Amino acid sequence: MQKIERIPQMETGHENKWQYYIYDALIAVAGSLIVTGLIYFSHLYPHISDIVIIHLILIMTLAIWRSRYAAIVAAITAFLSFDYFLVPPLYTLTIADPVQWVALFIFLFTAIVTSWLAGAVRQSAEEARKNAHELRILYELMRVCNNTNNLDEQLDIIVLSTLRVFSSLGITECVLLMPDQAGKLRVRADAPIRVDEFQPTSEEMGHAAQVYRSGKHTTIKDVNVPHSQVHYIPLKSDSHVFCVLYLRVLNGVSWLENEEGLNSALRNAYPPAEFFRTYLDQISSLIERSFLREKLAS
């Protein structure tokens, strides 16, 4: 168990994007107004005609620390507040001198381009960090599984690791269902660790058997547990299904949909979907290899 705890968890990211955007906008507007206020009360303009450039420091900081969105909002706020409070005629958005119009629009263009470039650098660095984090998850999973040749131990490691990695994204239960010698699905491993072995209902076993035969991902809403869904995911090699992965998810997960969605639109819209597909391929490969090793040993 201590070895499994070394496997990193998936990062949750920004669950409420609207809240995140509103927070960014408030920081950007407040920051720009504070900078303009300091210039206004210290009477630096028009004594220092290029003092508006000081806004670029704030804009670049927001682009690197927060997002390009925050930086662009800060640039527009700086443009409007500087015009309103500092450029004659004061307290209006009109400008008497056309030269001031040109100067402010050059500032706005420069600020937006700068924020976009700085944000692109930040996004590239964040993407590289995320990829490194995901690679570490797969590496640690393989390392822990390779510490034992026992099939049951490896299956326990896989379900416990799956629950640990994706628990931050809503998964609360993970079960592997495999056929016995008679071809009937049985529970071979389950997580979380509990006193009694996990016992699926006859209805759940029926859904799992259907997924095992069809090889298609199926999602069922659990009426007994509010805001809960059960995903039945076939794990297969080529077209051969060798087990079914049972995942219970709370509150619904937009990136955990059917297999077709994972392979197309959702992979772009929801970044965890692409890694989840890769993770499923990895555990399928591990289970298939363990099956082959067990057959050769017997």
Explain what the structure shows:
By secondary structure, the chain is of the alpha+beta class. The protein folds into two domains: 109 residues, no CATH class; 147 residues, GAF domain (Beta-Lactamase, 2-Layer Sandwich). It is built from nine helices and five strands; from the N terminus they run αααααββαβββααα. A five-stranded antiparallel β-sheet has the order 2-1-5-4-3, with helices on both faces. The longest helix is centred in the middle third of the chain and has 48 residues. It is elongated. The two termini are 28 Å apart. About 4% of the residues have low confidence.
Tell me briefly what this model is.
The chain has 298 residues and is α+β, with helices and mostly antiparallel strands.
Number of strands: 5
CATH architecture of the largest domain, by name, is 2-Layer Sandwich
The CATH topology of the largest domain turns out to be Beta-Lactamase
The major sheet is characterized as: 5 strands, antiparallel
In total, how many domains does the architecture comprise? 2
| Secondary-structure-derived class | alpha+beta
Given the structure, what is the number of helices? 9
Based on Cα principal axes, name the global outline.
elongated
β content, as a range? 5-15%
- Write down the overall mean pLDDT: 84
State the distance separating the first and last CA atoms: 28 Å
Give the strand line-up of the largest sheet: 2-1-5-4-3
The first-level CATH class of the largest domain is given as Alpha Beta
Q: Cα-atom Rg, whole angstroms? A: 28 Å
Unreliable runs: 258-270
Membrane topology: Multi-pass membrane protein
Subcellular location: Membrane
GO molecular function, one term: phosphorelay sensor kinase activity
Pfam family, one: DUF4118
